[in-house]
Design goal:
alpha+beta, FAD/NAD(P)-binding domain, 8-stranded mixed sheet, 4-stranded mixed sheet, 13 helices, 34% helix, globular, binds flavin-adenine dinucleotide
Length: 446
């Protein structure tokens, strides 16, 4: 096997597969290798059971700024452009339209929704509509049934509701990345151990041998920061692993019901969703946990977590700033109880699921074991706080892509951004016209 490639991508989740697809189809780059340590693509956070399967557009995410919403919309639309070329059962298993809304409970939240809608949301998202109790009763009856009549509720209903199996999407992108005349290789079960600089590019050492890449992108989730640090690109960042679990109930919601999200809190509040892989249920979550691992359900990643975590004063000061933030502290305290056997279910019902579906009973809920993932939160040691949004580090012919924002929805957007950078660095051509025709406009700033 020829071991030299123009580009090596480390990590076969949605981020790595979206980059592979974009580089292969829309640049003149001739050879790309994707290395994935597990025996299949998208086994971790991108898998359908790990995340909430929402295609985020920035219309119902009440903590977003206008700029963040515009960028989120542009990235999400690329998924729709790509989906247009899928057909039949494959398409249905990857993406499905679904009703989607954000629910406000109590006068303060309802007023907040109305204010956001009138100030700028309706201009960017003309299909978004404000719903009162009456319309809600018709559209999503179980958010009204059984609720105290005096409680004020309202919602923003999106016309951009989609559930996406990001794991299958990643696999499909990888499949479609194989084009005639190019060398596109994917090696599974290939764990990258280290990457060392060479005169041009890097030598990448794996358990399956050595490979040479003119450019390397780490699309390895939390491990991207691990590699950045081991290669001397520590820019004062540390990871705080935030885990998330789900509870299942019988199907009680027609669509996705998000809750109003406070600004400054990077992890989404508990919401209710259908599951694209299990039509008969409603999933509530994610909860918030603080596991001591880089990958959920992989305690062997504890040692590497400790290597990424800086045991210094700025880190501890940052952590204490984060944990003593009134809102985050209360979320963590509440969520610690949800993890307890039996009492956890009662509390989760009272504080979260029951606020969305008041008629839900504790017996309707059960813990969805083996689901959920990790949302790596990046601590900026200089600012002594959390870095909100996407996190990427750039070096010489290398990118460390730690966490896309708002998650898998922006993977194709991130793939475009990095494809432009990589093709420029390697003196290759970015096929902009072809890209815009098939994947949507590229904004002037890129
Ligand atoms: C509870 C929860 C809910 C979420 N809900 C949503 C949602 O509704 N919508 C949304 O858009 N996003 C959501 N997200 C976020 C989204 O799931 C992630 O942002 C996205 O899956 C990250 O993709 P990734 O490819 O960067 O990382 P991953 O999917 O984690 O992939 C990283 C890959 O790198 C590989 N890797 C790591 N180290 C190595 C190595 N040394 N050698 C080779 N390979 C390596 C791993 O095996 C893995 O396959 C959610 C996340 C969570 C946890």
């Amino acid at each position: 096997m020829q071991k030299r490639y123009d580009v090596i991508i480390v990590g076969g989740g949605i981020t790595g597969c979206a980059l592979l697809y974009t580089l292969s189809r829309y640049t003149s780059i001739k050879s790309i290798l994707l290395l994935e340590k597990y025996d299949a693509l998208a086994m971790l956070n991108s898998s359908a059971s790990s995340n909430s399967q929402t295609l985020h557009f920035g219309d119902i995410e009440t903590n977003y700024t206008k700029e963040h919403s515009l960028k989120t919309k542009e990235d999400a639309e690329r998924v729709l452009y790509y989906a247009r070329r899928l057909h039949g059962d494959a398409k249905r298993r990857i993406i499905m339209p679904v009703q989607k809304m954000v629910l406000g409970v109590g006068s303060e939240e309802v007023e907040g929704l109305e204010k956001g809608y009138h100030s700028w949301l309706k201009n960017i998202f003309p299909g978004l509509s404000l719903l009162g109790k009456k319309e809600l009763e018709r559209i999503e009856p179980n958010v009204v049934n059984g609720r105290d009549k005096r409680e004020e509720i309202g919602a923003l209903l999106s016309d951009k509701g989609y559930m996406v199996n990001f794991g299958l999407l990643a696999k499909q992108l990888a499949k479609d990345a194989r084009v005639r005349g190019k060398k596109i290789d994917i090696i599974l079960g290939a764990r990258v151990i280290e990457a060392t600089p060479r005169v041009s590019g890097y030598k990448v050492l794996t358990n399956k041998g050595e490979f040479y890449g003119g450019f390397v992108e780490f699309a390895s989730g939390s491990y991207s920061l691990y590699f950045a640090k081991s290669m001397g690109y520590d820019k004062g960042l540390t990871i705080l692993s935030i885990g998330g679990n789900f509870f299942y109930s019988k199907k009680v919601l027609r669509g996705k019901v998000y809750r109003v999200q406070k600004g400054g809190i990077p992890f989404a509040a508990v919401h209710g969703d259908p599951d694209i892989t299990r039509p008969g249920i409603t999933r509530f979550g994610p909860t918030v946990t603080v596991p001591l691992e880089l990958e959920k359900g992989h305690p062997e990643t504890f040692t590497d977590y400790m290597k990424v975590f800086d045991f210094n004063e700025p880190t501890f000061e940052s952590i204490s700033n984060i944990l003593f933030n009134k809102d985050i502290e209360s979320i963590l305290r509440r969520n610690a109880v949800y993890a307890l056997p039996e009492i956890g279910r009662y509390e989760f019902l009272k504080m979260e699921a029951g606020v969305i579906v008041p008629s839900l009973k504790v017996g309707d809920l059960h813990f969805a074991s083996g689901t959920g993932g990790i949302r790596p939160q990046i601590i900026d040691e200089k600012k002594r706080n959390l870095l909100l949004g996407a996190s990427k580090l750039y070096g010489d012919n290398v990118v460390f892509n730690i966490t896309p924002s708002p998650g898998a929805s922006s993977a194709l957007g991130s793939g475009l951004e990095d494809s432009i950078l990589i093709s420029k660095t390697l003196g290759a051509e970015m096929l902009r016209e072809k890209y815009e025709k098939e994947m949507g406009p590229i904004s002037k700033s890129k």
